[in-house]
Amino acid sequence: MDFTLSEDQISLMSALEKTLARFGDDYWAECDITGSYPDAFVTAMAEGGWLGIALPSDVGGSGLGVTEAAMMMQAVAARGGMTAASSIHMNIFGPKSLFVFGTAEQRQRWLPDIIAGKTRMCFAVTEPDTGLDTTRLKTRAVRDDDRYIVNGQKVFISTAQSADKIMLIARTSDRDDANPAAGLSLFFTDFDRSRIEVREIEKMGRRAVDTNQLFIDDLEIPVEDLVGEEGKGFKCLLHSLNPERILIAAEAIGIGKDALRRATEYARERVVFERPIGQNQAIQHPLADGWARLAAARLMMLNAASLYDVGQSCGVEANAAKYLAADVGQDICRQAVATHGGMGYAREFHVERLFREIMIPYLAPVSQQLVLCYIAEQALGLPKSY
Amino acid sequence: MDFTLSEDQISLMSALEKTLARFGDDYWAECDITGSYPDAFVTAMAEGGWLGIALPSDVGGSGLGVTEAAMMMQAVAARGGMTAASSIHMNIFGPKSLFVFGTAEQRQRWLPDIIAGKTRMCFAVTEPDTGLDTTRLKTRAVRDDDRYIVNGQKVFISTAQSADKIMLIARTSDRDDANPAAGLSLFFTDFDRSRIEVREIEKMGRRAVDTNQLFIDDLEIPVEDLVGEEGKGFKCLLHSLNPERILIAAEAIGIGKDALRRATEYARERVVFERPIGQNQAIQHPLADGWARLAAARLMMLNAASLYDVGQSCGVEANAAKYLAADVGQDICRQAVATHGGMGYAREFHVERLFREIMIPYLAPVSQQLVLCYIAEQALGLPKSY
Amino acid sequence: MDFTLSEDQISLMSALEKTLARFGDDYWAECDITGSYPDAFVTAMAEGGWLGIALPSDVGGSGLGVTEAAMMMQAVAARGGMTAASSIHMNIFGPKSLFVFGTAEQRQRWLPDIIAGKTRMCFAVTEPDTGLDTTRLKTRAVRDDDRYIVNGQKVFISTAQSADKIMLIARTSDRDDANPAAGLSLFFTDFDRSRIEVREIEKMGRRAVDTNQLFIDDLEIPVEDLVGEEGKGFKCLLHSLNPERILIAAEAIGIGKDALRRATEYARERVVFERPIGQNQAIQHPLADGWARLAAARLMMLNAASLYDVGQSCGVEANAAKYLAADVGQDICRQAVATHGGMGYAREFHVERLFREIMIPYLAPVSQQLVLCYIAEQALGLPKSY
Amino acid sequence: MDFTLSEDQISLMSALEKTLARFGDDYWAECDITGSYPDAFVTAMAEGGWLGIALPSDVGGSGLGVTEAAMMMQAVAARGGMTAASSIHMNIFGPKSLFVFGTAEQRQRWLPDIIAGKTRMCFAVTEPDTGLDTTRLKTRAVRDDDRYIVNGQKVFISTAQSADKIMLIARTSDRDDANPAAGLSLFFTDFDRSRIEVREIEKMGRRAVDTNQLFIDDLEIPVEDLVGEEGKGFKCLLHSLNPERILIAAEAIGIGKDALRRATEYARERVVFERPIGQNQAIQHPLADGWARLAAARLMMLNAASLYDVGQSCGVEANAAKYLAADVGQDICRQAVATHGGMGYAREFHVERLFREIMIPYLAPVSQQLVLCYIAEQALGLPKSY
């Protein structure tokens, strides 16, 4: 057993900090207030080669694992919250399916531009009325000669305002109860705004990275943009579920650590009744509890990443990491607000922004409740409850 | 013992609902998004006579107690959250000191206009570096013939953008450690914008009702605007602390009930995996827990109000009510967001607004931690911890 | 609204305290260690007339309500925990059905002796495999001329070691899915040990008041011991469900208050690092939180009792009171142990006894989870989850 | 980073399970009920060589680290709770100081017999009035020729009823505020019952392993039983603090896992309302939460052990591990009781025993609150609060 970072990992994180340090609190607060996309940040990350961290070197990536990608996303979120994380999140874990299931030609056609930040992609899975049961989605792709014609709706699609590519899952044949996952197909194609109407969902936080409802009307997709085999798209999708949970856990931990740092500094410096407020156990104990739980959630997250990278199953570990990370993240962000007293409510202290943003990993990509269902079934062998 | 509302109280609430029903979700969401003050609402409440609910009839009030005022504020917050509540909160509990300690002339000069909504007042106590120890405030009022000249700073002052009167506490003589509360004086005077600079504090929620920092520079207050005796302002202030906590508790309960209602309705109607999500214990049990705790917090709040109205001491009860109400309010608002899943994060479902607004009674006018200190000392006889 | 006790209620409680004061900590600890029934206490309560507090005066009771009975049980539990409470609990709420549904002859035959403490009764409803669905119980009573012959099993039956009467519910006709509650009958009869085998269940706490499994083998019950109509026993049972929850809530509150008192006293007196440990917020804040939640749970409990006494429905209130009381009771008992440090684990400080005993209202007569189901369905209109 | 067990570690645990499997639930329940020391178990562990797991091979130990010792103690506690763990706990971590600070002669004189289980030792540090500040202890050892004469009191001393050796810390010179830790000396000597009166403290759980108060009256200790230098005993003591916390964390995790296993099995098998109760989210979700938190606490514990074994500082990690392990352990034991419903209160289902025993790591060797103080100061740089 060895819980320490390798020297390479330490250098990597140190190099990353240099890029991150260029974007301070004011930058992220400005993005949040104006709702403007963090273009400069994404460009800097692309230039630094960070977007290809987990993609192989033959397409221009760094060839590292989900472990390093997760460490990177933790550091990114610790600086710029979910605004920073979500602006590149999809570019980190999304292309994985393209690499694993795409043809050699597709990989070369798509991945270098993604890594270079020239292509911005969005990921369109969720639909308004299918809940989490992806097999029930209704968007249809009908083959017509050398293209597919797609119609349907998608919801909670991030970065669709500015994406030029869309990764899309749709039904290419009717649902069969005996094998409900069959008949779904995965596409990666141009985001044709003449055929996809994008309506932004106004939301509580992370305004700079848009979330949208998509109305797809006769979108044409050339057959060469089908990823993997027709009808086997669900398998491609599944491949990226655990990395997604691991990254989101890392992001929640990053935000939690940032909130903890801010609260601790304020508690050390703010003097009330002639002593720093951090001398009060009511102030310091919740922060200490947060420290311990964040440290434990981080180990869970790294454990899941580590299992994934050596090809072992990591479903319960990845889900548990997201659960624990979001749970302590939410608590510590609220506590950071409370530590600042009335000033915690003011935008200028940034913790209110984290308090709003931490709700994203709390709610998505799967609810805390569904994680518990998953653990109960998979780790404890208890019956399905719904 | 009798826990039921009187017939008069039932009629009162029923009449109030008619006024409140004129301002729907869209109205409050619009206020929140644009940050515009809820003028129409305040006017309607003034026209209905509601602003004078707890003031005596000889100055145009309804002559009712804090009990009825608290019931009213619960109902107001259950419709329009803290945006609605804070827009009139000060007008409900602030003038109490004017009535109790003001001269007959002052009462007639000031109170009818407040009740009629013609006067909008703000309440300026808190200062940047005094923490909660009001006796340490530094704003000075120096007597100069028939007026006082005031200099200093105030922070967290609500509605100062539009107020035309300011209730202000300032030192009129030096602090004496032997009797630190002496030497503070209370004033109620015109809000002279040529002498008071107002800087708004941008904040997480309740944007429509401004919170501000005040920089007071040679403000002149005529002696006839001194309330009570010079040097005895602290006593006037204390008089309103418990009503303030009772009202804020009522407001937290109102928001909690509204969040619970919205979550429950969504849980009944939203179908996932072919059944309403409210059939899941993971969804319904936190709501049921919220129901029970809200009901208990409401009884605590009414108990405190009831003690206040018969002139008994109600400090621990009022503080405990604020603590319990804010605690369950915060939990149930987060749960309401979680119940809506990703949609909980969208502005259009309103629960995210409540989630941001409930943090106000959680943080103010006193932190949850200081309430626990107060209860520990006053109810349990434990030593002061700070 | 009026939250204060009447003068009569105050005198009553004051008289009760005189009886209770005769049985100190040593008495209850001794009962717990030796497992011997608190005979002297029960006798003293009977002599004081307390067993008939909620029964009408024409059978020798005091004619008071569930409100007063609950106040009494809170005070009893605050002195002697569940050992004291359970030794008389059944005598307080059990005979209610006898009074309401019994004939005039039965009332006179049974109730005076119960009130006088001459009759000790146990209450046999629960069966090993029916869970909480009483309509599924399997114990059969077959009419044979002027008697019923009963066979079956019961579980969790308190005081069966020493009871001389048993209140028993059994099927007198087959279960009909269309009307599952029909066909159950209630009996009150001699505890015939030649036909009922009693096996004690060894348990974590409250050893002095036995809990048992009953094996009933051809028990003969004369027809005159049938209570109410044959086949309508479920209705009789239902009548006592809410009072039972109210009393158990009162008992949990009594234990909670006792644990809080002990912890507070220890925190005031125990000096570590040269100051009372109660000066630490980590010690005092959980106790203050307990104070507030106990006060709120008490109001909920009294509210439910008050509704019951005026004949209004009180199901959700009674269940919510048991839920809140058991919840805070459990927390405060654990906190009382923690406040005592290592000494909390020692028997001589009594808090470990309360920590074991509070689990009874936490687990029974209905689990916290089933209370939440009940509230979700009845108060929130959410669908049944199981 | 590598979170997996080595093959050697896997074999070790597998061998251990064979020994542990010989002592089933009945054995541990019997120990608990009768209060008789688990002699057969301790003998079996000694025969298997397990007592020397963390001692070097030249004195007969296995030469493994705290990591393996902690894995062992987790497995031991998962079978026999704190009864099993405490019966050997001291023999595992106590001799460490003897090995590190003892002379070659002392090591050979003492350690082989400890490893062989021939010597049973107790560890006497804590005193009634010194709290956790060991430097304030009052027991005095006065040098008199070739021996020390010791007088004083100790409290919370486990296994003193049957120990034949005592590891004792006492003052050999007056306390100096400038260097309060100086002047304490460590001894390892015969337990002379003619000079040490042992009074057992009756307690809530783990009755089979006694806890005692010691009254030491002119105990004579030969100088050759002094460990390390006179006056430098505190340093010896400090050396074992972190291993102690790591082991206690491992034990809490073991109990937690056992409680979780029992609850899960019961939830799978117990059918109520015609389905296993584990199908209810109210039953399964708290268990799933327990699974996740136990897994995270285990990683924290192994991380601390791992740091210790490579000689790095591990204070915050060891303390955080004990905090998280005790916290989830306590929750999951209560939940295991609740999962069993009324049967959770019955001794025959064993979970009530675990519920009582888990309070030991919750309360000792340091309270949860003091752990938070430690983390706040050491990890967060916040000021001392007491």
Question: What does this protein structure show overall?
Answer:
Four copies of one chain form a homotetramer. The first copy, chain A, is of the alpha+beta class and 386 residues long. Chain A has three domains: 109 residues, Butyryl-Coa Dehydrogenase, subunit A, domain 1, CATH 1.10.540.10; 110 residues, Butyryl-CoA Dehydrogenase, subunit A, domain 2 (Beta Barrel); 141 residues, Up-down Bundle (Butyryl-CoA Dehydrogenase, subunit A, domain 3), CATH 1.20.140. Chain A contains 13 helices and ten strands. In chain A, the strands form three sheets. Chain A has a four-stranded mixed sheet with strand order 1-4-5-8. In chain A, β2 and β3 form a beta hairpin. In chain A, α8 runs antiparallel to α9 and α9 packs antiparallel against α10. The first copy, chain A, is globular, with a radius of gyration of 21 Å. Chains in contact: A-B, A-C, A-D, B-C, B-D, C-D. Chains A and D meet through α8, β10, α9, α10 and α13 of A and α7, β10, α8, α9 and α12 of D.
Average predicted local confidence, pLDDT of chain A: 95
Q: Considering DSSP H and I runs of 4 or more, what fraction of the residues of chain A is helical?
A: 40-55%
Unreliable runs of chain A: none
Order of helices and strands of chain A: HHHHHHEEEEEEEEHHEEHHHHH
* CATH-defined fold name of the largest domain in chain A: Butyryl-CoA Dehydrogenase, subunit A, domain 3
Number of individual domains of chain A: 3
Spatial strand arrangement across the major sheet of chain A: 1-4-5-8
Question: In one word, what is the shape of chain A?
Answer: globular
Q: What is the terminal-to-terminal distance of chain A?
A: 38 Å
How many separate helices of chain A? 13
Kindly name the structural category of chain A: alpha+beta
CATH architecture of the largest domain in chain A: Up-down Bundle
Largest interface: A-D, 54 and 54 residues
Rg of chain A, alpha carbons: 21 Å
Q: Could you tell me the strand content of chain A as a percent range?
A: 15-25%
